[in-house]
Amino acid sequence: MLINKQAEELNSIIIKSNPAVFQMLSEKGKSIYFPKEGIIAQSAQAKGKKFNATIGIAVEDDASPMRLNSISSKVLLDPKEVFVYAPSQGKPELREEWKKQILGKNASLKNQISLPLVTNALTHGLSIVGYMFANEGDKIILSDLFWGNYKLIFSNAYGAELETFNTFKEGLFDVESMKQKLSGGGKKILLLNFPNNPCGYTPTKKEAQQIINAIRECSESGNKIVVILDDAYFGLFFEEETQKESLFAALSLIHENVLAIKIDGATKEDYVWGLRVGFITYGFKGATPEAYKALEDKTAGAIRGSISNVPNISQSLVLNAFKASDYKKEKQEKFEILKQRYLEVKRVINNEKYKTVFEPLPFNSGYFMCVKPKKTVAEKVRLKLLEKYDTGVISIGNLLRVSFSSLPAKNIEQVFENIYLACKECEVND
User: Are 227 and 338 members of one domain?
Assistant: First the structure.
C-alpha cells in the first residue's frame, strides 16, 4: 500500500516513541493521516477573516448559520452549536472534559493518556479501532459471551476472526483461558467488555489484578498486545467487591508491548443512546505528547474518511449537560433506580423453585443478566414467552438475556415467574 508523506511523518513520530505500537497498526492504520493541506487547512487559515468563502455551509446575511425555522424553533442551543460542522476530532472543549472525567473516574490513572477523540458512539469507535489495528485474518481474542455486533464490526467489515476464550469457570472469570489465547508470539488483539454484554459481569478487584498480571506476563514474553476496552456500561457497578476502575488505567502503563484503547461514551453512562456520542482514548508506556498527537491525527483521518464528524448538536447537548449544576445529582438518581432493579433481580432469582429450571450466570453490573435453562432450549422458551406470556427476552446460544434496565422494579418478579412457567412448559413438550 502506497503511504502518503503525511502518514510517513506520523509513523516516524510513533516509532520514535514506541516501535511496538507502530507494529500493532494495521496496514490501513499505517497509511492513514489527517490532512494538513486542502479544504480543512485552507478553511482554518481563513477563519476570522472579514470575507470567508472557504467552508461548505450556507450562512444568513448576519453570518449566522442558514437554517429552517421549522427545525431551529425546536432547539434552544445557539445555532452555531447545532448547524455548523464540528471538527473531525470532536469539539475541543468536549474532548478536554471527557479526559477530565476519565481521570476523575479512575483515581490511579495519571495524566499520561491521549486526548479523547469523539466518535459516533461505541459501535463507530470500535469500527475505527478495527480500521486502525485489524488486518484481514487477524484474530480478535474475546470471551465466548460477547455482543453479537462484534461480528459485523470486526469480521464482516475488516476480515478479522473472532477467537473466544471461556468466560466463566466455577463462577469466576476464567483468567487462565484468556491467558492461553494470548500465549504464543506475535501481535495479539484482546477485546475486554466490562460490564459485559450479555451477562452483566465485571471482574472483582482480585480478578482484575489477575487479568492485568496475565497481560503483563504475555507482553513480557514478547507479544505485542492491543487491548481494546469496551467500557460502554462503565460506572454501573452495583457490588462493593467489583473493580470500579477501568482496566485501561493499569494497562496504559503496564509495558511497552501493550497499547490500551478505551472505547466509551455518554451513550449509556449519561442515558443518551440516540445522541451517539462516544470516545476513543489511547494509553501506552513510553508515549510522548507528540506520539499521542500522531495517533490522534491518524484516528481523526479515519473518522474524516468515514463519517467526516460527529453531529455538532449531539456533542453540544452532552457538553451542556456536563456543565449543568444538577448533572451529578441527576446521574446518581438514575444510577440508584438501576441499582434497585438489580437488587430486585438478585432477590427474585433466589426463589428455590427456579433453581431446578434455570441457572443464573454471574452478574453484578451493567444492564443485563443471563439465565441458562437446565432442561430445555433457550430459543423455545423465548418463543413461548412471546406467544403465551406477553414477555420478550433475548436468546443467545442456550442463554436467555434479561435486560433489567428496561424493567420497572415492580415487574421484575413477574418476568422471572413467566420465564419459569415457559421453561416448565417447554420441558414437558421436549
Answer: no
